[in-house]
C-alpha cells in the first residue's frame, strides 16, 4: 500500500520535498539542464524588454530629428539636448544587457535585438542631417552608446529604413519651403537617388525580409522623385503649405520574385 497524500491546513496537497524524491543517476544532469534553461529564459526576457525600450527611444530621436529645417548644419540647442538625453537612456538600457550578449549569445539572441536596426536608423538619419553624407559602419559603431558590437546585418537593415525618413523629411521641408532642401551642389533628391543606386547593386538576398526592404526603398525614392518633378513642372501652381499625397500610388508592375 502507498502512503496517503500529505496536505496543508487548507487541504491543499503538499509538494514533495527534494529529500522525498528518489534520485537516479541522471538526476543531476537534468538539474543542470533546468538551470541552463532558466538562465536562458531570464536572459531572453531581459534582452526583449531592453530592446523594446531602446526601440521606443530611437523612434523618439527620429521624431525629434524630423523637426530639423535644414541639413548640413548644427542642430538647434533644444533638439540636440533632447537627442543627447535619449542617447543617454539608450546607453543605460544597452549597458544593462551587455553581459548577456557576449560571444555566441550576440547571435543567439540576434532576432530579439532588432532594436539595433532602429538605433542605426536614428544614428544614420542624424548623421545625414548634420553632414549630408552617409554614415559608415565604423562611425555607427563608434556612435553606439554602449559596448555592443553591431553586425553588418544591423547596419545594412538600419540603412534600409533611412530611406523612409529621408522621404518624410523631404516631403515636410518641401511643403514648408517650396523647394527640395540641400546645398548649392545637390539636394535630397540627388542624395536618395545616389544611395538607392548603391543599394540596387547589392547582391540579392533570397529572403522575404530583404525583398520587402528593397520594395519599400524603391517606393520611398519614387515618392521623392515625384515630389521633385512636381516642383519643376507645376511648382508655381502649388499653394503655400501644399503637402503631396503620401499614399502608395505607384502603379508600376512588380516583377515576379
UniProtKB/TrEMBL annotation:
SUPFAM superfamilies attached to this UniProt entry: Translin (SSF74784)
Keywords noted in UniProt: Cytoplasm, Nucleus
Keyword Nucleus carried by entry: yes
UniProt GO MF annotations: sequence-specific DNA binding
Localization recorded for this chain is: Cytoplasm; Nucleus
Instruction: Give residue spans, biased composition: Basic and acidic residues.
Output: 1-13
Region of interest (Disordered), residue spans = 1-20
Q: Name one GO cellular component term.
A: nucleus
* Matching InterPro entries: Translin_C, Translin_fam, Translin_N, Translin_sf
State the similarity comment.
Answer: Belongs to the translin family.
Protein's recorded name: Translin-associated protein X
Organism of provenance? Hypocrea atroviridis (strain ATCC 20476 / IMI 206040)
Amino acid at each position: 500500500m502507498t502512503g496517503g497524500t500529505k496536505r496543508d491546513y487548507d487541504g491543499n496537497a503538499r509538494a514533495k520535498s527534494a529529500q522525498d524524491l528518489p534520485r537516479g543517476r541522471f538526476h543531476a544532469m537534468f538539474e543542470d539542464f533546468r538551470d541552463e534553461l532558466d538562465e536562458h529564459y531570464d536572459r531572453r526576457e531581459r534582452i526583449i524588454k531592453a530592446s523594446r525600450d531602446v526601440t521606443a527611444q530611437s523612434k523618439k530621436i527620429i521624431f525629434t530629428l524630423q523637426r530639423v529645417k535644414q541639413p548640413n548644419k548644427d542642430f538647434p540647442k533644444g533638439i540636440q539636448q533632447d537627442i543627447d538625453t535619449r542617447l543617454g537612456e539608450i546607453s543605460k538600457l544597452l549597458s544593462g544587457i551587455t553581459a548577456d550578449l557576449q560571444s555566441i549569445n550576440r547571435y543567439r539572441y540576434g532576432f530579439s535585438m532588432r532594436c539595433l536596426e532602429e538605433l542605426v536608423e536614428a544614428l544614420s538619419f542624424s548623421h545625414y542631417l548634420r553632414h549630408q553624407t552617409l554614415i559608415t559602419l565604423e562611425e555607427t559603431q563608434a556612435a553606439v552608446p554602449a559596448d555592443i558590437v553591431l553586425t553588418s546585418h544591423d547596419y545594412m537593415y538600419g540603412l534600409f529604413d533611412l530611406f523612409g525618413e529621408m522621404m518624410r523629411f523631404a516631403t515636410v521641408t518641401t511643403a514648408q519651403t517650396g523647394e527640395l532642401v540641400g546645398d548649392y551642389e545637390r539636394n535630397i533628391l540627388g542624395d536618395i537617388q545616389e544611395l538607392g543606386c548603391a543599394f540596387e547593386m547589392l547582391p540579392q538576398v533570397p529572403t522575404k525580409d530583404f525583398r520587402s526592404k528593397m520594395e519599400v526603398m524603391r517606393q520611398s525614392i519614387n515618392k521623392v522623385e515625384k515630389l521633385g518633378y512636381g516642383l519643376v513642372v507645376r511648382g508655381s501652381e502649388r499653394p503655400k503649405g501644399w503637402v503631396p499625397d503620401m499614399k502608395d500610388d505607384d502603379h508600376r508592375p512588380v516583377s515576379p520574385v
